[in-house]
Amino acid sequence: MHSRSSSRLVSVAGGLTAAALLLASCSSDTSAPGADEDVAPVTGGTLVYASGDAEPTCLDPHVGGNYPQSLVSSQYLETLFTATDDGEIVPWLAEDSEVSEDGLTHTITVREGITFHDGTELTAEAVKANIEHLQDPDTASSTGWLAVQKVESIELPDERTAVLHLSAPDNALEESLSMIWTAIQSPEALERDQDTNCADPVGTGPFQVESWDRQTAVNLVRNEDYVLPTEDAHVAAHDEDTPGSYLDGITWRFIPEAATRYSALQSGEVHVIDNAQPDTISSAEQTDLGHLDAPRPGASNRIELNSSKAPFDDAAVREAFIRAVDVDSAVESLFFGTAQRSHSLLSSVEPLGVSDDSLFGQDVERANELLDEAGWTERDDDGVRTRDGERLELTFPVSTNQSVPAEQSLFEQLQAQAAEVGFDVTINLLDLSSWYGALAEHNYDLVSAPYTKVGPSVLRILYHSDSTVPAPSGYFANNAQVTLDELDEILIEAEQTSDDAEREQLYERAQRTVLEDYYVLPLYDQQNHFLYSDDVHGMGETTAVSSPIYYNVFLEQ
Q1: How far apart are alpha carbons 160 and 113 in whole angstroms?
Q2: What is the DSSP string of 120-153?
Q3: With contact defined as beta carbons under 8 Å apart, do 397 and 356 qualify?
Q4: In sequence order, what E strands does 298-360 have?
Q5: How far apart are CA 546 and CA 540, in angstroms?
Q6: Using CA of residue 268, residue 271, residue 275, residue 276, what is the dihedral sign?
Q7: By the 8 A CB rule, do 541 and 6 touch?
Q8: Burial class (CB in 10 A: 0-12, 13-18, 19+), 363
Q9: What is the DSSP string of 195-206?
Q10: Contact, 184 vs 128, CB < 8 A?
């Protein structure tokens, strides 16, 4: 796939042209032990990966569509498009694409010579089958379902060409088709029942699923027939006698406790870990361990305020909460320089992000004034503000699978600061399933819900009123419950225009509307840190959604 931390030369029409595609040098986002050493690649060995994320309930990322699925499925599935360092969308399994002048027709040509793990040849039929799989309510997709909502019908004029007819223009469609949640799977495999496909998705990637020992590990083995979708890059990246990846396989383990994962890395029990604590990352940089920092595209990590019910149906109360807290100090004290404060709805890797720090500085005096003006003038014996006998109470469900302990500590600091002006914030630490349940029942006033998507069109998913309605999976993305007709119109125009300058202006207007009405408290980029041992080489390549891939990784023997 691609690397946001590697340099690439590309041709949009002809695909990838640089012979040394996967040997490109990594940027400063990657700090690798022995980076200046000339270590000759070797074949063999099984890399052991330890994830702190909740184990996926399905290895097919079409089903649901969360980040833990992305991390593992990026090893065995590939996408039609990918992204370069600067965010340009380019073909991958696709060879070429064209968009009609009215934006309603996207014609995609797939590459020749690509086969799935089951021996099925990649043809345009796979494009049709996969989009239909995503659109099928029984698949229970969320991210992928949203990505292809506008595809109305698909024509197949020949074996390699798929013509997608849209209900409305969608200038983000190819961005969406670069994400692993829309990855291309074998059409024959998709005809199996969902439980079978969840346990053994069949893709075109450098590894394939050998077995899944639930609650323990997913076991991946090398795809001996793998060829990069560009022949010259395959020859350049690997000796022509080397089949597929350097690694024999990957053992993908699930170790939820951060300290246990780090101990396993230090002892050599595992080679790579994710979700490391900030203090661990900071101390690891003084050792021989490598560190890959790969911020995710799409939304920043943020706290969303539920505007559909009291007290946050009042913009003054929303602003009062945001003015009451000091995120800067909390980030500085808890994250040891591993996270930079954000004042934007979008990730720092999104070039169209709008940032405005003037909206988010702590001002306790102003917070008190706003609450007084909103009628929350009395305080009870606990110091909690009241209005007409009602306490100023907030419920904040937190997913222990998605928030590392440092982030949970940050939420506790904000809880204490909000209490000073009269908010009573209850933090509920929940497992992922219970957390999703709380959101589905709208049982929250505050929530931190990461959302990864390539490009600024994530704003349409997060803040258009349509997104207050759940996807087939049951998940809805507009957690702030923003329902503004004017904002809806801006977001639709931004998604349909073919003028890049107009698109940028419209997305700026949309962001300012959400920020200035205090629906969201931005925190920092979605944290995506990976630590790896000093015998791991070749780390740095990532997908369009910043999940590392291991085709070019090898273990020093």
Answers
A1: 11
A2: PBP-HHHHHHHHHHHH-GGG-BSHHHHHTTTEEE
A3: no
A4: 301-305
A5: 10
A6: positive
A7: yes
A8: middle
A9: HHHHHS---SSS
A10: no
Backbone angles phi, psi at 301, to 5 degrees: -80, 130
Task: Tell me the per-residue pLDDT of 366-403, one tens digit each, with 9 for 90 and over.
Answer: 999 999 999 999 999 999 999 999 999 999 999 998 89
Structure tokens at 77: 């599935």
**b/e code 172-181 from CB counts within 10 Å (16+ = b):** bbbbbbbbbb
Contact 73, 548 (CB under 8 A): no
Evaluate if pTM is beyond 0.85.
Answer: yes
Q: Show the beta-strand stretches assigned E in 406-550.
A: 424-430, 446-447, 520-524, 529-532, 536-537
- Please, are residues 220 and 75 in contact by the beta-carbon 8 Å criterion? yes
- Of the candidates 28, 169, 10, 193, the one whose C-alpha atom is nearest the C-alpha of residue 88 is 10
pLDDT in tens, 119-144: 999 999 999 999 999 999 999 999 99
User: 232 and 113 in contact (C-beta within 8 Å)?
Assistant: no
Length of the chain in terms of residues written: 557
User: 499 in the Ramachandran plot: left (φ > 0), alpha (ψ -120 to 50) or beta?
Assistant: beta
For the chain (557 residues), the mean pLDDT of every run of 10, in chain order, is 36 33 37 56 96 94 95 98 87 96 98 95 98 97 94 98 98 97 98 97 97 96 85 41 81 95 97 95 94 96 97 98 98 96 97 96 98 98 97 97 92 98 98 92 94 96 94 88 98 97 98 98 96 96 95 93
Q: At residue 515, what is the residue type?
A: L
> Which token pair is 535?
């015998």
Task: Locate 180 and state its tokens.
Answer: 């692993």
Residues facing residue 50 across a β-bridge: 253, 273
Identify any residues that bridge with 379 across adjacent strands, giving them in sequence order. Answer: 385
Cα distance between residue 522 and residue 347, in whole Å: 10
